[in-house]
Write a structure and sequence with these properties.
The protein is mostly helical. The chain is about 50% helix and about 10% strand. Helix 5 runs antiparallel to helix 6. The N and C termini lie far apart (about 95 Å).
């Protein structure tokens, strides 16, 4: 009898926890839905939320969308234009959404890392800047130019 009571009590707490968790997640989703932002980054369109753009309070994106600055939307599609190369902007958004770079989500490509570092520095996203610096510092270093040991006749 005691085991059944304990099990029923445990289940009640478990379901209450799940209900609260789901309610919180749904509230976050509604908040995100209400604050959608369209960005035109160098001709590529992205849709995100005000919550995501403000995730790093010290970033340029948080400053832009803090309400302290008057921003002009493009007439045609209602997006905000940022004159940057949009090629790697999805990595910027995913870092802001997740708070980290998850394993396997950016290619093992030092040239891409350098380009992304340039963008992260522009947007002033220090967590991503630090992560990319650590990736680049762990690369094997080349001491000599490939041409230095070549003899031309």
């Amino acid at each position: 009898m005691i085991k059944i009571f304990y099990f029923e009590r445990y289940n009640a707490h478990f379901y209450e926890y799940i209900d609260n968790f789901l309610f919180q997640r749904m509230s976050e989703m509604y908040k995100i839905q209400d604050s959608r932002i369209k960005l035109d980054i160098g001709g590529l369109l992205f849709t995100t939320s005000l919550t995501t753009l403000n995730r790093d309070p010290d970033s340029m994106l948080a400053a832009m969308f803090s309400g302290r600055h008057e921003l002009k939307k493009e007439d045609g599609n209602g997006s905000y234009f940022i004159d940057r190369d949009g090629t790697h902007f999805r990595y910027i958004l995913n870092f802001l959404r997740d708070g980290e770079i998850k394993d396997g989500t950016i290619p093992e490509n030092p040239n891409l890392w350098r380009e992304l570092l340039t963008e992260a520095e522009y947007y002033q996203i220090q967590g991503l800047v630090g992560y990319l610096h650590s990736l680049l510092q762990n690369l094997p270093h080349r001491n000599e130019s490939p041409v230095s040991n070549t003899t031309f006749v």
